[in-house]
Amino acid sequence: MTGGLIALAAALVAASALGLVLRRRAGRFRAARVSPVPDGPAPGADLLTEADLGGPLGQQATLVQFSTAFCAPCRPTRQILTQVAGMVDGVTHIEVDAAARLDLVRRLRISSTPTVLVLGPDGAIAKRAVGLPRKADVIAALGAVIRPVSPGVGGQ
Q1: Facing residues of 119 across strands?
Q2: Which of 29, 30, 131, 145 could be joined to 127 by an S-S link, Cβ 3.0–4.6 Å?
Q3: Biggest CA pair distance of the chain
Q4: Does the pTM exceed 0.85?
Q5: Over the chain (156 residues), what is each successive 10-residue block's mean pLDDT?
Q6: Strand (E) or helix (H) holding 89
Q7: Assign residue 131 a region: left if phi > 0, alpha if psi is -120 to 50, beta otherwise?
């Protein structure tokens, strides 16, 4: 009986620790590491085009959200990304239905929704987050992609 209680307590501690680690990592942006699927196209696997996304790329950056119909955190993610895209000039937000684009999901190894990709102006994947991101984290991830405009450059 005592051995069973010790095993139960150990399982609860391990599950709680794992839950805390996963919760802490959710929505955090990391540098993108897209490794192509075996038997898939190796060149350009981390480069997305307007044809891939079904919409135009932003002049400075594109926020791509993979979501599904029954994803609870996808709606607030959509709101955050739409707000950020509206705040920053040259940034667009494109939402991709993961169920309808399984080819792209496999190619990019999307394993859960929402998954957010930050693309540079050329469509190269710069950052990736899984889960509901914070607005500040989205803005910071864009800062790594967008080139600041220097005053006095290109004008006189």
Answers
A1: 62, 125
A2: 29
A3: 83
A4: no
A5: 76 72 63 51 67 92 94 95 94 95 93 94 92 93 79 52
A6: none
A7: left
